[in-house]
Amino acid sequence: METPDHATETPAEASATTGIAAQDWATAAADPQYRAAVVDLLGALAYGELAAFERLAEDAKLAPTLGDKAELAKMAAAEFHHFEQLNQRLTAVDEDPTAAMEPFAKALDDFHRQTAPSDWLEGLVKAYVGDSIASDFYREVAARLDTDTRSLVLSVLDDTGHGNFAVEKVRAAIEADPRLGGRLALWARRLMGEALSQAQRVVADRDALSTMLVGGVADGFDLAEVGRMFSRITEAHTKRMAALGLAA
Predict the structure, then answer these.
(1) Where does residue 158 fall: left (phi above 0), alpha (psi -120 to 50 degrees), or beta otherwise?
(2) Is 54 exposed, middle or buried (0-12, 13-18, 19+ CB in 10 A)?
């Protein structure tokens, strides 16, 4: 999972130096509600990385050239490494990784089933747009986490190279056949809507996560800030659409 251009700029990243954001895991985890929220967050991230690995491996079958296939295989391997990092962290804090991921499996599986790409280009747009929306969301939350958890979350959001790869391939395809632009733009808009709906459903179903977002566990997030957060995510999506050569 990645945010290739780190398109969102969260004020909290610069100012979150007090409260939980200034504590280490051992101190912050003394609050059972905060601990539950972090376990949920890591579980959701871990399943997202596992799903990204599976999807990239599947997308490689659609690759038009051997070089493209190899690039996607390399990216899939990077996603699996991120999954392993999260698994190891959950185990280290005495949590069962499978149990932590389980609550999020159906929602993510449903999202991927509803947005299965019909061809190579749709798969690239989905990886670039869909994964980046999720990464933007996690980056926003990471700014409010304890120092140890924040470092881990940001490390697994590192760019695997898929962003630049997708932009290069999609732009080249549209230049060769401008008619593709309309279809891919509609596809990206659908992905945006489905991704935000899925994220809202997941958060609504998990009390600890929702509390983290609206305040009480993580300092500084209130309902108004949640609205601003989604505005930043939407703005980042518009920038990525422009990078692809598509209308938002």
Answers:
(1) beta
(2) middle
Cα–Cα distance measured from residue 145 to residue 165, given in angstroms and rounded to the nearest whole number = 31
What are the tokens at 229?
Answer: 């957060």
Pair of tokens at residue 166:
């997708």
Task: Give backbone dihedrals phi and psi of 143, rounded to 5 degrees, phi first.
Answer: -65, -20
Q: 3-state class of 142 per DSSP? A: helix
Residue 94 identity: D
Residues 6+ apart with CB under 8 A from 200: none
C-alpha 248/C-alpha 236 separation (Å) is 11
Residue-wise pLDDT for 182-207, tens only, equals 999 999 999 988 888 877 777 777 77
For the chain, helix (H) and strand (E) counts, in that order, are 12, 0
CA separation for the pair 118, 79 (Å, rounded): 22
What b/e sequence results for 194-219 when a residue is b if at least 16 CB atoms lie within 10 Å of its CB, and e otherwise? Answer: bbbebbeebbeebebbbbbbeeebbe
- Cβ atoms 174, 184 nearer than 8 A: yes
**What are 204-227's pLDDT values in tens digits?**
777 777 777 665 554 545 667 777
CA 207 vs CA 5, 96, 216, 230: distances in Å: 31, 19, 11, 19
Whether residue 15 contacts residue 171, with contact meaning beta carbons closer than 8 Å, is answered with: no
Triad 98, 42, 210: Cα angle to 5°: 110
pTM: 0.84
